Amino acid sequence: MRQAKVLFKDEEAGLIIQLDNGSFVFHYNDLWFNSTAKPAISLNLPKNRQEHRCDYLFPFFYNMLPEGTNKQLVCQALRIDTKDYFGLLVNTAAYDTIGAVKIIKV
What is the pLDDT of residues 15-69, one digit of tens each? Predict the structure, then answer.
C-alpha cells in the first residue's frame, strides 16, 4: 500500500491510496469533507461521498501526469517504471502543477 496527501491551495484536502491489489482509493479528510466552505477537488470526486474507489488511477490524477517524451525523460531520470502511475504522480505533482492541487508523499 502506498499513499500521498492531496493538497488544494496548500491545504490538505484528502488522501490518495494505492492498495496492494493495484486499485485506488481517494478520501477527503474529515475537516475538508464537513466544511461547506471547502470545494470538491474535482467534479469527478464530489464531496457527496467521503471515499471514492477505482480499479485504476482516477482520471483527475492521471491527467496530472507528464506525457510523451517528458514522461519518458522523467521516468528515466527518476528510475520509475513508465506504468507506475502512482510513483510518477507523487514524484512529479508535488511542486509544479497546473491548478490548485498538489500531491505530497506521506
Answer: 999 999 999 999 999 999 999 999 999 999 999 988 999 999 999 999 999 999 9
- Which three cell numbers mark 57? 488511477
**Strand 2-8, strand 101-105: pairing:** antiparallel
Q: Are 52 and 27 in contact (CB under 8 A)?
A: yes
What's the rounded Cα separation, in Å, for the pair 42 and 28?
12
Q: What is residue 56's three-state secondary structure? A: coil
Joined together, the cell numbers standing for residue 29 give 479528510
CA angle 15, 25, 89 (to 5 degrees): 65
What cell was used for 41?
Answer: 477537488
How many contiguous H segments (helices) and E segments (strands) does the chain have? Answer: 4, 5
- The per-residue pLDDT for 24 is 98
